[in-house]
Structures are given as structure tokens and as C-alpha cells.
Amino acid sequence: MSIVYFLTVLNPHTMTAKKAIAIIAGVGPGTGTAVAKRFSSIYNVIVLARNPDSYKDAVEEIEKTGGSALGLSVDVTNEESVKDAFKVMEKKFPGLPLAAGVFNVGGKFVKRPFLEQDPDQMLSNLKANG
Known about the structure:
By secondary structure, this protein is of the alpha/beta class. It is built from four helices and five strands; from the N terminus they run ββαβαβαβα.
């Protein structure tokens, strides 16, 4: 089962194109890629997955259609991996605000605002997906 958490920080209707970023964690051939493609028409997109093969095609397609995408290999269950990813994001898109964050990983469904998620429960959900 896939879990999708969505966080909107900025209103896309009041922003000029490509002045913010959208981060999508858990990109594969399904939901994550579809969300990344949709957001790429408005935002710079950063896609995260453990395996580069999971996001490579999405990044290529977004860039072919004029969008801006960055694919990163990240293990979202590992704090250091996530911190390292944010360092790379800041170098690629310095100072741009976060417009949207999507946490699209497998696990047990939990209906709760993203910023109120319990880190231990999120880790448990990730491990449940194998």
C-alpha cells in the first residue's frame, strides 16, 4: 500500500513559475512520477528514491518538456541520507522556498497532517513496505 502525504507551503496561483521547489519522496513508475510531472509545470521538482532507476525516466521526461528536475538517491529512513540530500538541493536551488512536499512511500495508512506525523510511526510505515 502506498501512503501519500502532501504539504503545500505556498499558493501556486500567486507565484511566478520556477520560483519555488516541490519535493517528492518515493518516486517510482506510478503515483510519485505522476505527481512530479504535474508539479514540474509550475515548480522546480526534486524527486527522491533509493534507486536511481526509479526516478531516472521521470527526470529525463520532465527536462525534455522544459521543466527543471533533480533526482536524488535517498533512503528516507536514514537521517544522514536525508540531510545530505537537503545539502544537494540547496546547492542546486539556492534560496528557493518549498512550495510542496509529497511523501509517497509504502506502509500503514495514517491520516494526519504531515507536520504532525510521529517520526517513529513514519519509520515503522517505511519498514512495513520492505
